Automatic annotation (TrEMBL):
It comes from Chryseobacterium taeanense. This is VWFA domain-containing protein.
Length: 296
């Protein structure tokens, strides 16, 4: 009887060990499926008159040229990230958006060319092709928009309301959205208010709301000024705004713009975000590269 008892105990221990191994395997599988080392990078470009070198000139470096260099830095960070991984793990993509789409069909063709993706079957030569596309096409887009001169504005609010989840968020990836804009938000098709919150922000609105003193934060909080919330939960999206460029005359304009954006992102449960001024690309490139690498 004792021998049978000991034999039963040995069998039970072996079975338990097998069970625990299965649990370990299950845990390993779950880690693999939730690995967010694959990235999905989106670039939303504001093609309003902010890029017009006549309306908004900058002798140091025109704003459209800064945008082009920002995009180049984003592409550099994207490729650096992919090169840091094993080929078998490639599952990354990058694309450019406008909202609304430009009327010029050439710009839309350029946009299609800028949608790139990498997987385990991607040839090594594709890196050079992507680099070539992002070295040439963004400048072509801005030159075409400036030549056309029909600046319809950028409906950023509507993009966040109706498109950002479908266009910029993949469940199995780390999602990063770069927005190239001066920080003002306005489009004639999406201009409305809910109480003291609005779907737009202009220099005139900032003045009308008396946000021209150092006490602007208290004024915003007291009167609940801000953007109307466009989405409920964007916690799996990281957002980097590049190019904030306040109008002259109000020393607090830039801070007010950033406050609007920050409060908006928090309301939509965006946990990781950065809002940067229209600085020289050489100053912003390290920030862009660090953001894409995940080393904030």
């Amino acid at each position: 009887m004792k021998k049978l008892f000991y034999l039963f105990m040995v069998i039970s221990l072996i079975s338990c060990n097998k069970g625990s191994n299965k649990e370990d395997e299950t845990q390993k599988d779950s880690v693999i499926t939730t690995d967010l080392n694959n990235i999905n990078v989106s670039i939303l470009i504001d093609l309003s008159d902010r890029i017009d070198p006549i309306t908004n000139p900058n002798p140091t470096m025109q704003y459209f040229q800064r945008d082009v260099e920002y995009i180049k830095a984003i592409e550099k960070g994207f490729l650096n990230h992919i090169k840091s991984k094993k080929i078998i793990t490639y599952d990354d993509q990058m694309q450019v958006f406008f909202n609304p789409e430009p009327s010029d069909p050439k710009i839309n063709d350029f946009t299609k060319e800028l949608k790139v993706s990498f997987d385990k079957n991607t040839q090594k030569s594709y890196f050079a092709l992507v680099d070539k596309k992002y070295s040439e096409l963004p400048l072509n887009i801005y030159q075409s928009a400036i030549k056309d001169g029909n600046y319809v504005g950028s409906d950023i609010w509507e993009f966040f309301k109706n498109k950002v989840k479908d266009y910029c968020i993949k469940d199995d990836k780390r999602n990063i959205l770069f927005i190239l804009t001066d920080g003002y938000m306005y489009h004639e098709n999406t201009k409305f208010a809910e109480g003291n919150k609005t779907s737009y922000l202009t220099g005139k609105l900032i003045k009308a709301n008396n946000l021209t003193t150092s006490d602007f934060k208290n004024t915003i909080e007291k009167n609940t000024y801000g953007f109307v919330k466009a989405n409920d939960n964007l916690s799996n999206l990281e957002v980097i705004v590049l190019g904030i460029n306040p109008e002259k005359g109000n020393p607090f304009e830039e801070a007010v713009i950033k406050e609007y954006w920050e409060n908006w992102f928090k309301e939509m449960k965006i946990k990781k975000y950065e809002i940067k001024s229209a600085d020289l690309p050489s100053n912003l490139e390290p920030i862009i590269l660090k953001t894409i690498s995940g080393k904030y």
